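Appendix B. Chain record.
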Amino acid sequence: MILANVRRQLTRRDAQLAARLIARDSTDELETLQNQLANEGIDGLLDDPRLLRAILEHPLGAAVSFPLFAYVAVRAALRRLGEGDPGLADYAAAVLLEFNARGRANRIGASDDQTYEALYELLGDVNDPDAKRSLLVRAHLGNYALWLSGLFADHIEYRRWHRGGPSLDYFEELGRRGFILAADHRLAVENGLAPLYTKIAERFGLVRTALTRVSDQLLFPNVSSPERLMRQVADEATWRMAG
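Structure tokens predicted for this chain:
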């Protein structure tokens, strides 16, 4: 099960590397940041607007772990959209980390044998008689929709305009539905997961947009297409009005 736990995965090495990246070559700044780390923990460093830029520009950025990069990139994108809750960045980054494993995006769990190629297939299994599996299917419906629409919005929009495929709204609708169903599940309530799933459902479109910006700017920066331009304009209009 995917949890909002990426920050807890970060190591002392991650923290020290973040401080060195922010400080660049300033010994005084590094000392200040290390004192901040000792007194306040790592969150202040993770939220420092200089960190992502340093990861991308400084030679030391090549040594950054994937958990550190994923969290910092998603957190920065969400903050630019006005979302200050680090828990949402933590969860979205956890989805990226988990689905980075080969074939994991198509399975509700690493040890589950059944694969799903489309969201409607997951929707058909949300009421699986096995309670644990039912919860995993519901959460995976949300996670899979978030991953697909967040990282591969260009592909979705291309298929929409050229092959009659579903729009990003379709993925957002099913993603929200998955998290709403997960939040309503008895096991989610009993294990304290319902508030997290509810929050993600409420802000699904915003989290999707943040992941798409990460994808546009950092993963697939050299794509130029009418579909991307139209989608970026639509996203910008949506979140300007929402703000």
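Further analysis of this model is presented in Appendix C.
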